[in-house]
Amino acid sequence: MKKILMVWCLAVFALAANAQKEGIAGVEFGASHAKAMETLKTAFGAPVSETPDLVEFKNVKFEGQNFSQVLIYFDNDKMNQARFYIACASKAQAVQKMNEIEKSLAARYKNMSADQEDDGSKFIKGGLGPDGQSLFTIYTFKDRKNGFKWTTGLRYGAFML
User: Fold this and answer.
1) For residues 28 and 73, what is the distance between their CA atoms, to the nearest angstrom?
2) Taking Cα atoms as reference points, which of 156, 110, 111, 98 lies closest to residue 129?
3) What is the DSSP code (8-state) at residue 89?
4) How confident is the model at residue 148 (pLDDT cuts 50, 70, 90)?
5) How far apart, in whole angstroms, are the C-alpha atoms of residue 66 and residue 148?
6) Is a pLDDT exceeding 70 seen at residue 1?
7) Residues near 104 by Cβ (< 8 Å), separated by ≥ 6?
8) Alpha-carbon span 105 to 8, nearest angstrom
């Protein structure tokens, strides 16, 4: 029994240690603003706006998709959240993009699952974040900030670091 418990504890520790190394574009969640920006500028180009808490990029290629907007959030100088958006012409296109992102991420993350919002719309979550929760969520919505256009979102976090 002790051996089983020890193996289980080691497996949990290994998963937790691996989860802490998750990030985007080579930047781990929890990285400082300065360190994150060095790599993000190389990966995504120059930001269109930057404050200590929020950085915005436009027209970014990531996970095989062209994202119209990327928002990177920092809390207490630590990167704790990333949101990627694709503006779509219709709900059908938004769902198609969500499925394409799911397929791309499924090659790397085997623990993905789908669920439904209260309104019946599908969302997908997966990976293991540094806080032990899901690493990412893929979803669709009507973006009121963008004239209520259908949008596909890929959200990492927000993580409590």
Assistant:
1) 13
2) 156
3) S
4) confident
5) 20
6) no
7) 63, 64, 65
8) 27
Q: How far apart are CA 119 and CA 141, in angstroms?
A: 11
> Residue 31's closest CA among 65, 74, 85?
74
DSSP label of 31 = -
Of 75, 73, 76, 98, the residue nearest 85 (C-alpha): 98
Per-residue DSSP letter, 161: -
pLDDT in tens, 70-81: 999 999 999 999
Mean pLDDT computed over every residue of the chain: 87
Pairing outcome for strands 49-50 and 65-75: unpaired
Q: Which helix (H) or strand (E) holds 14?
A: helix 2-19
110: left (phi over 0), alpha (psi -120 to 50) or beta: alpha
**Contact between 18 and 29 (Cβ < 8 Å):** no
In this prediction the pTM is: 0.84
Q: Which two tokens stand for residue 141?
A: 């919505």
Within 10 angstroms of residue 15's Cβ, the number of other Cβ atoms is 12
